[in-house]
UniProtKB/TrEMBL annotation:
Keyword Metal-binding (UniProt): no
Span of the signal peptide: 1-22
Name assigned to this protein: Beta glucosidase 46
PROSITE patterns according to UniProt: GLYCOSYL_HYDROL_F1_1 (PS00572), GLYCOSYL_HYDROL_F1_2 (PS00653)
Entry's family note: Belongs to the glycosyl hydrolase 1 family.
GO terms (BP aspect): carbohydrate metabolic process
Amino acid sequence: MNICMKLSIGLFLSQMFLLVLTEKQSSSNPPSAFPSSFLFGTASSAYQYEGAYLSDGKGLNNWDVYSHKPGNNIDDESNGDIAVDHYHKYLEDIDLMHSLGVNSYRFSISWARILPKGRFGEINEAGIEFYNNLIDALLVKDIKPLVTMTQFDFPQELEDRYGSWLSPQSQEDFAYFADICFKSFGDRVKYWVTFNEPDVQVRSGYRTGTFPPSRCSGPFGDCTDGDSEKEPFVAAHNIILAHIAAVHIYRTKYQETQGGSIGFVLHCDWYEPISNSIADMLAAERAQAFTINWFLEPIINGRYPLEMQNILGSILPDFSTVEKQKLNKALDFIGVNHYSSYYVRDCMFSECKPGTGTSKTEGYWAQSSQKNGIPIGEPIEQDGSSFYPQGMEKIVTYLKERYHNIPMIVTENGFADTKPNSTTEELIHDAARVKYLAGHLNALSTAIRKGADVRGYFVWSLLDDFEWINGYIFRFGLHHVDYKTLKRTPKSSATWYKKFISQHI
Ligand code: BGC
């Protein structure tokens, strides 16, 4: 055998060895559960991030007005006037996203920046320009925008003129705004969300009165005006019909040429029956009915959930025949914001102490984080929540089964540091956040492997930000923000997320 033959046999054998090794490695490392088209991103919203509340022709919105009122519910008496100044720092923030390796960014539009007076005034071209610049700069870095049209904020004009969501006029305003968004940005935006967590919005705005427009009645809260047992259903009804109107416009005027999809986001806690009794299992189902299915059932199947109809009767508004025709799979994906899980017990047949969920108009159920003194998962700081990542798999599987596996996107999942006196050093070494995100992503991958059609996952949030009534006390960011200098610093979780993404796309 000459030297050349020996060399080529050697080369052949070493190539075979590498091949076997690679095969062995890939069979011991199962392929990622996340398909190659999967969206990995971070989420934000206009009022919580942008600041610049009076810049370049923006009108006042409901949160601008609310946060400036003495006696509001904001824990640190702060507001979003500056927030994290994303309006001026968006290029820096896109660089942070790019260095994480995300392929998507969820943000919301400030309605009053585009339409300072709703449909009663001119379009503010500077507002359109801001979002055009933001979208273009994202696309340059291969980051796909997922755009929420409104995340709790809307022009104050609509509140002052006709009481915003309590009036059917709000449907017309939203449709008008949505049309402008599709027309201005739809050539580049392929994922739209109409509303973010309207379940939270109407509960806080009209039942407990803890969000603007601060309407409620006793015993749910202490407001100057409102009806906690009626108004949440009226506001929700108008929001559902506003969503339908926007979807109708998108599907008839834009979707075919623009080729995007449109969805609706809900606050999807997981409710675990506290026992195997039929009463507790039905109570857990009622908890889902009175929170998420309240919106999804009409939008997908054209009627309110039976659990709500049976209990509420005529308190629930009706849909007209024409509306019912439009209420037929009026979304392309369900946006799932998942943070926490709770035990649920029945309050229809058993006595419960008054609290969230227990009244008739909330569906007669009570939530708790413990069963016989044992927590559902390791307690975490935020709002009595627990680390129970199985809740992610369970809620996604629940939605898959109930709604025939309509595509889903996890539009928010995140962990808050809530101690106001923590040092920057402590906040940056955020091992608890890493554990939370890793656990939830792992549970999500299990749901996907078992067949759930989930197309994306967004961490709440890229940065620490203004957290509604928790002000700047709650910090959800992968990046720490120094609120004096607005300097952004990556936390351990940013490094971890970057590595996770690189291993999965
Ligand atoms: C909301 C976000 C909020 C997050 C964390 C979600 O309910 O959609 O706007 O910041 O929770 O509190």
